[in-house]
């Protein structure tokens, strides 16, 4: 991390933020053994320039993980570049193109990763809605407002594909449920492809699902995607920590010890603690445009899985 010669105000803010990060109890990752992954909706990241302090805080939060799925990355990548410079020369980003219409909201989806811990394997693609032939054209009957984005990575002996998404909000819960169900079908079809890049698939992002008891959650898990055991607790990702809008899901291919730990990183705490990061003070709403209105959701996974793979071969 290269924060450089920051002002004393930002230095004090970073120390306060480090205390909040420490409270999240994120274990250190070990090269070729474990990997810390996260999903984070950084509110309208790039729409309007962040303050210098906010850029340093965002970099400090991202730097706790090895691979992060980013939601609400906007068309202007200037602030992303500012963050990457602070993270340092081993950090990389891969991202989708923006969509200019109202449904797309000029948003991108992407991944930020530390190449010392995880290697990009070459696949980077959007998930396209199923098409049917109509006349001379192949057209989707329904669409993703923002096409989910996936990329392939390798860490240790673990090759995997990670997919991130930002499900529509809109005026209709049923329309949102249908989009989530379409994504679940797409993921299942991808998993069953004989020539798919990797069967190990991690799904993450902002699903706009209020809770795990909601019909929207049933839609994304209908084919067997599960919340890792480490994230089964009441982990809310809004600032009040009472809504489970963001998810990390996977197919339970490996034993329970595949996931070591997980949770949310609460960089907010409360309105009263905003001044620790921004001494001039600001409203909670303005704070969400400086850092975010979502908390990062994270988990640690074991990537040294050679033994487990050999056991699977023996068991047929």
Q: Could you describe the 3D structure shown?
A:
By secondary structure, the chain is an alpha+beta fold. The chain has one domain (8-315): 4-Layer Sandwich (Deoxyribonuclease I, Chain A). 27% of the residues lie in helices and 28% in strands. The chain contains eight helices and 13 strands. The chain has helices at 8-23, 52-62, 78-87, 173-192, 215-220, 274-277, 284-290, 306-315, and strands at 34-45, 67-74, 91-95, 107-114, 119-126, 131-134, 137-140, 149-155, 158-166, 201-206, 246-250, 259-264, 297-302. The strands form three sheets. Strands 3-4-2-1-13-12 form a six-stranded mixed β-sheet, covered by helices on one side. Helix 2 (52-62) links the parallel strand 1 (34-45) and strand 2 (67-74). Helix 2 (52-62) packs across helix 3. The longest helix has 20 residues, at 173-192. The N and C termini lie far apart (45 Å).
């Amino acid at each position: 991390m290269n924060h450089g010669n920051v002002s004393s105000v930002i230095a004090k803010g970073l120390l306060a933020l480090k205390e909040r990060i420490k409270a999240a109890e994120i274990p250190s990752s070990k090269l070729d053994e474990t990997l810390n992954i996260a999903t984070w909706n950084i509110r309208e990241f790039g729409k309007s320039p962040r303050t210098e302090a906010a850029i340093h805080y965002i970099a400090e939060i991202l730097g706790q993980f090895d691979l992060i799925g980013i939601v609400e990355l906007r068309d202007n990548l200037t602030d992303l570049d500012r963050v990457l410079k602070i993270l340092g020369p081993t950090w990389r980003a891969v991202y989708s193109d923006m969509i200019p219409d109202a449904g797309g909201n000029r948003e991108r989806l992407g991944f930020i990763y530390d190449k010392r811990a995880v290697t990009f394997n070459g696949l980077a693609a959007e998930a396209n809605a199923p098409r049917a032939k109509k006349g001379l054209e192949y057209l989707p009957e329904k669409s993703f407002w923002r096409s989910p984005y996936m990329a392939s990575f390798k860490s240790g002996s673990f090759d995997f594909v990670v997919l991130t998404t930002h499900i529509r909000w809109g005026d209709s819960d049923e329309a949102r449920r249908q989009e989530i169900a379409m994504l679940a079908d797409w993921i299942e079809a991808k998993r069953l492809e004989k020539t798919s890049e990797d069967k190990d698939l991690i799904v993450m992002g902002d699903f706009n699902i209020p809770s795990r008891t909601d019909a929207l959650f049933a839609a994304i898990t209908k084919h067997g995607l599960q919340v890792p055991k480490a994230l089964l607790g009441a982990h809310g990702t809004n600032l009040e920590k009472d809504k489970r809008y963001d998810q990390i899901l996977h197919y339970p291919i490996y034993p329970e010890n595949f996931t070591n730990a997980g949770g949310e990183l609460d960089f907010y705490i409360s309105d009263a603690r905003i001044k620790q990061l921004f001494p001039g003070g600001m409203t909670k709403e303005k704070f969400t445009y400086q850092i975010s209105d979502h908390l990062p959701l994270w988990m640690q996974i074991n990537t040294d899985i050679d033994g487990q793979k050999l056991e699977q071969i023996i068991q047929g």
